[in-house]
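Structure ticket #2291
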Amino acid sequence: DYSTSIEAAWEIVEKFDYHQCSGGSASGEGWRWYLENTEGGPTEYGEALGETAPVAICRAAMKAVATKLP
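Resolution: structure written out below.
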């Protein structure tokens, strides 16, 4: 499951071939993850918080796919 396994969640990052991604823990807030892809068209950008890194990755990826900046 992508939202519970870091290995599975990392497949999302690799599939989208994001050229920039970062993650880290924020005290008291959980994990924050940021994904951005500016190659091949409109910029896809997603940033999200999650209780775990896999949840944050999944949320950020969903936002990136749903939001394409000009």
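Closing remark: The two ends are 32 Å apart (CA to CA).
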